[in-house]
Design a protein that fits this description.
- The chain has 351 residues and is an alpha/beta fold.
- The protein has two domains: 191 residues, Isopropylmalate Dehydrogenase (3-Layer(aba) Sandwich); 142 residues, Isopropylmalate Dehydrogenase (3-Layer(aba) Sandwich), CATH 3.40.718.
- It contains eleven helices and twelve strands.
- The strands form two sheets. A ten-stranded mixed sheet has the order 2-1-3-12-11-4-5-10-8-9, with helices on both faces. It has a two-stranded antiparallel ribbon with strand order 6-7.
- Helix 7 runs parallel beside helix 8.
- The protein is globular.
- It starts with a strand and ends with a helix.
- Bound molecules: 3-isopropylmalic acid and manganese (II) ion.
- Manganese (II) ion binds next to helix 8.
Length: 351
């Protein structure tokens, strides 16, 4: 019987819907070739809907999303909405309520893609960051006292449970087992954050014993930033906390050609996962057919791989690479092609 997948598509705001449209083009083309079927249902969460209706994302909508095999997300964010409302109300709510506890971000420099790092090429940059995705500073525990006075106090706690740490580390080791190098680097700050990272470090060494084939390494987060630029070939799998992961994956994205190519998955290995280009809404490019859809196409092959269609995923990645070879740049409006041309070319490459 033909495999069937139900996908919830959330184009979102800004250039989100444009890049998702190209990703969908590629998904449809590859599904025909690999003989599986996709049912796509579109949802209109985002800044535009919030401005019209005041709605962010309801519990009923989250419940509806739980019936899907995966979520394919464009971008959420709106210049007319104050910071935090859409991020917390939609993106983080989805990550939390669906317990997408892993943020999976491949950092791969493809051939013909510009990197600002001198003397490094596609042989040197090929690793993945496993970012814990629901805990730490993002837990949202904290508050104000004496707000607005000169004695004002604010706290925001970096909270981790042993369970959260263990499941993230285990995912990192499992990821390493599927890769050639089989190396996991813990990125932390054991010299200052001596409670939280002591927990991470102890759990890291204990779990490492279950994976004798995997080489282990530790770097402080600040040094990690240096190595990501000076010697990225040192890395295979980096595992880290939510906040550090947020920061280092933006740096990593720049080394792989920028937001036009970087994609990620918000993964719940036992539940519903969500795949997205990580570039945001790019309001200056909205509606101009100038934005690079490669990151959204990357999110599409990550999603296929997650669904178990690994041959289709690999083929879509190959087609993506072939088209990247023909592009002038990964930057918006400098690609040498329009957004829709890129989607057509990848789909063409597949057929
Ligand atoms: C990301 C984004 C989000 C985060 C924002 C938009 C809430 O920066 O996915 O990295 O901080 O996780
Ligand atoms: Mn981020």
């Amino acid at each position: 019987m033909m495999n069937q997948y139900k996908i919830a598509v959330v184009g979102g705001d800004g250039t989100g819907p444009e890049v998702i449209k190209e990703g969908v083009k590629c998904l449809e083309s590859i599904s025909k070739k690999h003989n599986f079927s996709l049912t796509l249902d579109y949802f209109d969460f985002g800044g535009e809907r919030y401005l019209k209706t005041g709605q962010v994302l309801s519990d009923e909508e989250v419940a509806a999303l739980k019936t899907y095999d995966a979520i394919y997300l464009g971008a959420i964010g709106h210049t007319d909405v104050p910071a935090g409302i859409l991020e917390k109300g939609i993106l983080l709510k989805l990550r939390f309520d669906l317990d997408q506890y892993i943020n999976y971000r491949p950092v791969k420099l493809y051939e013909n893609v510009y990197t600002p790092i001198k003397n490094k090429d596609h042989n040197d940059i090929d690793y993945v960051v496993i970012r814990e995705n629901v805990g730490g500073l993002y837990t949202g525990i904290g508050g104000f006292s004496m707000k607005g006075t000169e004695n004002e106090v604010a706290t925001q706690s970096m909270l981790y449970t042993r369970h959260q740490v263990e499941r993230t580390l285990r995912f990192a080791f499992e990821t390493a087992m599927k890769r050639k190098r089989k190396k996991v680097t813990l990125c932390g700050k054991t010299n200052v954050l001596t409670y939280v990272f002591n927990l991470w470090e102890r759990a890291f060494h204990e779990i490492a014993k279950e994976y004798p084939e995997v080489e282990t390494d530790y770097v402080h987060v600040d040094a990690c930033c240096i190595y990501m630029i000076e010697s990225p070939e040192r890395f295979d799998v980096i595992v880290t906390t939510n906040m550090f992961g947020d920061i280092i994956t933006d740096l990593a994205a720049v080394t792989q050609g920028g937001m036009g190519v970087a994609a990620g998955g918000n993964i719940n290995p036992e539940g519903v996962s969500m795949f997205e280009p990580i570039g945001g809404t790019a309001p200056n490019f909205t509606g101009l057919n100038q934005i690079n859809p490669m990151a959204a196409i990357g999110a599409a092959h990550l999603m296929l791989d997650h669904l178990g269609e690994s041959a289709a995923a690999a083929e879509l990645e190959r087609a993506k690479k072939a088209v990247i070879l023909k592009m002038k740049s990964m930057a918006a409006n400098q690609m040498g092609f329009g957004t829709d041309d890129i989607g057509d070319m990848v789909a063409q490459e597949l057929s």
